[in-house]
Design a protein that fits this description.
This protein has about 400 residues and is α/β, with parallel strands linked by helices. The chain folds into 2 domains: about 10-40 and about 280-390, Aspartate Aminotransferase, domain 1, CATH 3.90.1150; about 60-275, Aspartate Aminotransferase, domain 2 (3-Layer(aba) Sandwich). The chain has 13 helices and 13 strands. The strands form 3 sheets. The protein has a 7-stranded mixed beta sheet with strand order 2-8-7-6-5-3-4, with helices on both faces. Helix 1 runs parallel beside helix 12, helix 2 packs antiparallel against helix 10 and helix 11 runs parallel beside helix 13. The longest helix has 22 residues, at about 280-300. The structure holds pyridoxal-5'-phosphate (PLP). Pyridoxal-5'-phosphate binds near residues 96 and 123.
């Protein structure tokens, strides 16, 4: 009998020991390890949900109500300059579910290709989705600005590639791609018959530069993946959508109908209201930008540095005297620089995520999610000032 499939430990479960240590520090835990929002849901959204209880009586549409899909189209046009029709949109039960299942559904449609390309430093679910589909997951090297370096994909991997994941603004590095960059990446994939899935769930959390989307390069063979989790602090509501190539969206919508994947009706109604409102997102962006500025100012005076991009949701931090990506193989966690650094943070009550949770070569960085209120982040920095500079 073949070896049974064994899942690796869930990335954040590996933080349990550090979490216990950080929680025991006076003043309590400041948890910057997971990108889960802590700020309030917009009032208009709470109100819409309360008014929409009747939408919970019957089964909701798997692809999303017309109202939700129209609101998604309106939002993409307003905020990203992208024009798509409602039949080029299908909803998903939060985007993690879509990210994890997309390779499986696309592979059923095209058995001739078995490889999923994703950034070598990335949200781990891209690789897990490939594994769950029985596909090969191939990490794509990134350049000095943390963007995909597609010239370094081998011809064989490109020929076998079913799907290319892009994630800008990036989790964990905060890199932000321009529309020009997307155009080149999409062109590279189209010439090789590779579907592009562009995970844009942080699209609005960029300061001082234009928002962008892969769909500005056209919808042919491209899917953009969007979430209400971060945009509208609705992570617990589980609502997102995919938009782009009409044929692919139709196919995915049909799969989702058969699989019974549905967002509850009242949540669909609330998400439509959220997508029609930008004010709460601008307020949220200002919060992240303020928290980021506080940390950047502190880092400037420390022996640590953020060497990721300008995205406002995450900081990607390493010691100033380290180079950024050195492979560490077969070394116990506690000897990896990222874990040493995470342990130093934990000693002062702050939990951050070691870089190797986002790719095995990312052994020198830690990721900080700027999700805690300013006063908690200030406390974290005060407590670190004494210890980290030792
Ligand atoms: C890059 C990226 N994609 C997708 C997700 C999943 O978000 P959700 O399932 O809440 O829509 C996350 C969550 O942290 C993420 O960072």
């Amino acid at each position: 009998m073949a070896d049974p499939f064994v899942l690796p430990p869930y990335p954040y479960d590996r933080l349990d020991v550090l979490k216990a240590r950080a929680s025991s520090v006076g003043g309590g835990l400041v948890d910057c390890s997971i990108g889960t929002p802590c700020d309030p849901m917009p009032e208009v959204v709470v109100w819409a949900m309360a008014q929409s209880a009747d939408a919970g009586i019957g089964y909701p549409p798997s692809i999303g109500s017309l109202g939700l899909r129209e609101a998604a189209c309106g939002w993409m046009l307003r905020r990203l300059g992208v024009e798509v029709a409602p039949d080029q949109v299908t909803s998903c039960v939060g985007t993690k579910e879509a990210v994890a299942s997309l390779p499986q559904y696309l592979r059923l449609r095209d058995r001739s290709r078995d490889t999923v390309l994703s950034p070598e430093v990335a949200y781990p679910t891209y690789a897990m989705g490939a594994t769950l589909a029985g596909c090969r997951s191939v990490p794509v090297p990134v350049d000095a600005e943390w963007h995909l370096d597609l010239d370094r994909v081998s011809d064989e991997d490109a020929e076998r590639a079913l799907l290319l994941w892009i994630n800008e603004p990036s989790n964990p590095t905060g890199s932000v791609a321009s529309n020009e960059w997307y155009a080149k990446a999409v062109d590279w994939a189209r010439r090789r018959g590779i579907i592009v899935a562009s995970d844009e769930c942080y699209a609005e959390f960029v300061a001082d530069q234009p928002r962008s989307s892969a769909l500005n390069a056209g919808t042919d063979g491209v899917l953009a993946v969007h979430s209400l989790s971060k945009r509208s602090n609705m992570a617990g509501m589980r609502v997102g959508f995919m938009a782009g190539d009409e044929g692919l969206i139709h196919y995915l919508g049909e799969v989702r109908k058969h699989a019974g994947l549905m967002i509850p009706g009242p949540i669909q109604a609330a998400a439509a209201v959220a997508l029609a409102d930008d004010d709460h997102v601008d307020e949220q962006l200002a919060r992240y930008a303020e928290r980021r500025a506080l940390w950047i100012d502190w880092l400037d005076r420390s022996d640590l540095v953020h060497d990721g991009g300008p995205g406002t949701f995450y900081l990607w931090i390493r010691s100033r005297d380290e180079t950024s990506a050195i492979p560490v193989r077969g070394v116990a966690d506690e000897h990896i620089r990222a874990w040493e650094l995470a342990a130093r943070f934990a000693e002062t009550g702050t939990l951050v995520a070691p870089g190797d949770l986002y790719g095995e070569r990312q052994a020198h960085h830690v990721r900080v999610a700027l999700v805690q209120p300013l006063e908690r982040l200030s406390l974290a920095l005060e407590r670190m000032t004494t210890t980290l500079r030792r």
